[in-house]
Amino acid sequence: MKMLSGVSDFFGLDIGTTSLRVVQLHSTGGSKQLMHYGYVPIDGNLSMSDAKADQQKIIQTLRELLEQTRITTRNVAVGLPSQRVFTTVVDIERLSPDELAKTIKFQADAIIPTPLADSKIDWAMIGDSPADKTKVEVLLSSVSNDFVESRLDLLESIGLNVIAFEPSNLALTRAMLPFDVAEPQMVIDISSKSTDIIMTINGMPRLTRSVPTGAEAIIKSAMQNLNIDEKQAQQFVFKFGLTKEKLEGQIYGSIISTIDIIMTEIDKSIKFFNTRYEGTKLAKIIVTGSASTLPEFPLFIAERTGVAVEIGNAWRNIAYPQDRHNELFAVSNYFGVAAGLAERQE
To answer: What tens digit of pLDDT does each residue of 301-345 get?
Structure first.
């Protein structure tokens, strides 16, 4: 998952559950400027399917997207969906880099869910362990060889040169947080099928969690509890959200049990964080993804957790013409991963 050195011209590709998204930036004097971006919807089952016919549909759609957006490079950094990646933080003895690599490989065999021989592993040292000063914290990620190789074959089949694979939640964190952030922050990405929760200190993830509940489950709750069709449920959910005053609170009442599933995982994450990093206070929660725009949802999270909440901005670290602000802000919730991939440094 390391990036090929010497490659500075590339674009970020997020193969999401409901759309493909691309972002290409241009670096000038430390600043990253937006060159091209775009997205195209795909069937919700395609991105996670291993069937050849489904993979070919993705490739054809991607080829069309690259033409439409006028992406100028064949080099690409690709996001790995959190449902396919195992990520954890482990405490390792303070060792020389060579010894550390050997120890991590040895320990990984007992930690990761797939056999070591069938997995690609990446790791980064992120600081001193809060539990034991003789140890360091290491962020460990693993993904199955089969998944990475099938993605690689797919992308190479249309002449793309994959320079890096990266877990989507790490790319998302890069886009959502300011460059110089030191205080502990949480990023919550509520997408169509899942919710990713990432706790960070100094901009580095210290806890990542993926919950298989997202916007689709919220809409399904409204459908079932109000006995309405999907289109109407979607309209109601995104118009009224968690507003108790509208429609006699019926929408709120129909979706709150599903919202509570997500909130329970957020509460658990904060509790774990506060226990492990005693005395460290979470300063902010940043929410993004399709469901982050539900009316009153950010306020609901703030009141439940007692932590300030802001809506994420995928373009916060990227320069672009002021007259494009409204256009870009309108789609910001969907481009966190693609923008974060495009912001990678060598």
So the answer is: 999 999 999 999 999 999 999 999 999 999 999 999 999 999 998
| Whether residues 289 and 267 fall in one domain | yes
Q: Do 75 and 89 fall within a single domain?
A: no
User: What's the CA dihedral at 145, 150, 153, 154 to 10 degrees?
Assistant: -150
pTM over 0.85: yes
d(CA 139, CA 330): 33
Report angle CA 218, 219, 222 to the nearest 5 degrees. 95
**Alpha-carbon dihedral sign for residues 143, 40, 178, 4:** positive
The answer to whether the CB of 138 falls within 8 A of the CB of 123 is yes
Dig out the tokens for 53 from the structure. Answer: 């016919």
CATH number for the domain spanning 28: value is 3.30.420.40
Q: Which residues pair with 156 in a beta bridge?
A: none
Range of the domain at 217: 209-309
* Same domain (yes/no): 223, 325: no
What pLDDT, in 10s, does the model give residues 229-270? 999 999 999 999 999 988 888 999 999 999 999 999 999 999
